[in-house]
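Hi R.,

As promised on Friday, here is the backbone we talked about, encoded as structure tokens. Could you run it through your design pipeline when you get a chance and send me back a sequence?
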């Protein structure tokens, strides 16, 4: 649906240009909604875009706060006191909200390219981790963790130090994670995945 909207907007813009020369292409859809759609339908579509954005932000904040609390504070005993646990969860939600807002102020450039670039960083490592756990029965926790960190570092290095396009970041992260995780799993002692199953 998203790609189809882009194609249709491209066809429409061939007959009725939406942007002036030099304007950012990210403005095409909002300008089309405001200028070309009927008043009620334009408001409904804009409200639906805001609702989707708010639900995504809410889900992201909830997931980040929950994983931070459960992974880092469960061992400290905060889960024993529900009121303290709830207060800590709210504080962590505010922290992650500030972090995500800070990312919003960074001048990234094209919205689509930025979204795909940012998504490529964790997705490459996650794909490599999945392949490592599926294909290598000797993989262990140490290999997976070190491999994932290495894959993420490799992706960031390629992003910062080379002119490689963002479409290759997932492959770089996946290969880095798998190769390093494969090697480390054989060097570092740990319980192999096969024996745990």
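Update: got your reply. Pasting your designed sequence below so it's all in one thread:
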């Amino acid at each position: 649906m998203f790609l189809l909207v882009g194609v249709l907007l491209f066809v429409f813009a061939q007959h009725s240009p939406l942007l002036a020369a030099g304007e950012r292409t990210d403005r095409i859809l909002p300008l089309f909604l405001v200028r070309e759609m009927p008043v009620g339908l334009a408001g409904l579509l804009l409200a639906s875009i805001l609702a989707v954005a708010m639900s995504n932000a809410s889900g992201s904040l909830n997931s980040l706060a929950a994983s931070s609390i459960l992974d880092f504070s469960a061992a400290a005993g905060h889960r024993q006191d529900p009121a303290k646990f709830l207060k800590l969860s709210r504080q962590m939600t505010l922290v992650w909200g500030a972090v995500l807002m800070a990312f919003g102020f960074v001048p990234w450039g094209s919205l689509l390219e930025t979204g795909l670039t940012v998504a490529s960083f964790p997705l490459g490592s996650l794909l490599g981790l999945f392949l490592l756990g599926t294909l290598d029965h000797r993989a262990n926790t140490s290999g997976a963790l070190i491999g994932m960190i290495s894959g993420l570092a490799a992706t960031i290095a390629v992003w910062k130090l080379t002119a490689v396009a963002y479409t290759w970041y997932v492959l770089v992260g996946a290969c880095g994670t798998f190769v390093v995780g494969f090697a480390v799993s054989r060097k570092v002692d740990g319980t192999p995945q096969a024996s745990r199953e």
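One thing I noticed while checking it: The chain has two domains: 24-106, 110-197.

Thanks again,
M.
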